[in-house]
TrEMBL record:
Part of the 30S ribosomal subunit. It holds the Pfam family Ribosomal_S17. This is Small ribosomal subunit protein uS17. Keywords: Ribonucleoprotein, Ribosomal protein, RNA-binding, rRNA-binding. HAMAP family: Ribosomal_uS17_B. It comes from Comamonas thiooxydans.
Length: 89
C-alpha cells in the first residue's frame, strides 16, 4: 500500500524586487481579486522574504517560492525554481 504523498506546502509565483541581503530575496506576489461592492478587478500585492542559498536569483527574475519552517524572524519561504529570467535593459 504505497501512496503518493501530496505536498501540503503552499507555492507562490512572484517577482524578485530586492536581492541585497545575503542568502535572501524579497519576492512581490500579486493577485487579482474582485471588489465585493463595485465588482472591479483589483490587484493586491504582498512581499515575502525567501531563502536563496546560492544567491542565484537576481532583481527582476520571476521565481516560485514554497513555504517552509521559520528560518529567521521574517523568513518563512524558500525560493525553489526560476520561472523566468529578468529581461536585460
Amino acid at each position: 500500500m504505497t501512496e503518493a504523498k501530496t505536498s501540503l506546502k503552499r507555492t507562490l509565483i512572484g517577482k524578485v524586487v530586492s536581492d541585497k541581503r545575503a542568502k535572501t530575496v524579497t519576492v512581490l506576489v500579486e493577485r487579482r481579486v474582485k471588489h465585493p461592492i463595485y465588482d472591479k478587478i483589483m490587484i493586491k500585492s504582498s512581499k515575502y522574504h525567501a531563502h536563496d542559498e546560492q544567491g542565484e536569483y537576481k532583481l527582476g527574475d520571476v521565481v516560485e517560492i514554497t513555504e517552509s519552517r521559520p528560518l529567521s524572524k521574517t523568513k518563512n519561504w524558500v525560493a525553489t525554481r526560476l520561472v523566468q529570467k529578468a529581461a536585460l535593459v
